[in-house]
Amino acid sequence: MSDDVFDAGWLALREDADHRSRAHDLAQRLAEAGTSMGWSAALDLGSGTGSNLRYLAPRLPWVESWTLLDHDVTLLGGARAPTVPDPIRVVGDLALEGIQEIGSAHLVTASALLDLVSKQWLTQAVDACAARGAAALFALSYDGVVRWAEEDADDALVRDTLNEHQQREKGLGAALGPDASHAAETLFEAEGYEVVLQPSPWRLSGPADRDLTVLLMRGWIEAALEIRPTEAARLHAWEARRNEAVTAGHYSVEVGHYDLLALPPRRAE
After folding, report:
1. How many whole angstroms separate alpha carbon 133 and alpha carbon 126?
2. Per-residue pLDDT reduced to its tens digit, 178-235
3. From the candidate CATH numbers 3.30.200.20, 3.40.50.150, 3.40.50.720, 3.40.50.1400, the one assigned to the domain spanning 8-146+173-203+256-263
4. How far apart are the first and last CA of the chain?
5. Angstrom distance (rounded) from CA 178 to CA 46
């Protein structure tokens, strides 16, 4: 989307694409690590309505305590998962309560978050994870790739302006945008973590993904117009052409993301 305000409708619309796109073997590796290490507490940052919780809870049976943190009390109040009847809900800011809560977690996780945060925040989060010895799983961080099966002459204009917008201020300083996953990889590796970075692209096509794709393109155009207002005619014309194809079901688009798993070094007994 074009800004850092997410409503429940958008979050619900994207959940199926999010869940099917994730690097599923990373959750399996995390399940095995948590069991062997005796971990029990997980922190979900920017949890929204609980999509990340709903994906991970059935896959991480060792988690006995889930803490959900978000600044939006309405979204947080609606966070639910069938297998987690009583998660702890913390209304707070990522830069304050978010960093503080890491100190009580064995796992720090988030979905569709890293590309919105700054290098400063990410450094603080990695430092806090390292101090705690906590693992991290950051899913679905946008990587700057938008690839259509049938190309349009203005695809590059939309993608490039979107990527420029992604590195603007999102509430925590200049956002890392498409550079986020590789920045996190570098920071965790510097702390001695074992880091696995895997692609987790959205692949959208057909009637089932139509509404999501239309709304996604609307967000892209809103972002692009902020960067290139003088290109409004080209941008609106691109959206109209793409909307016609998407509405008819004649489209396929890949939106690149990465999932990152960081496992802490084992400490000497």
Report:
1. 10
2. 999 999 999 999 999 999 999 999 999 999 999 999 999 999 999 999 999 999 999 9
3. 3.40.50.150
4. 46
5. 18
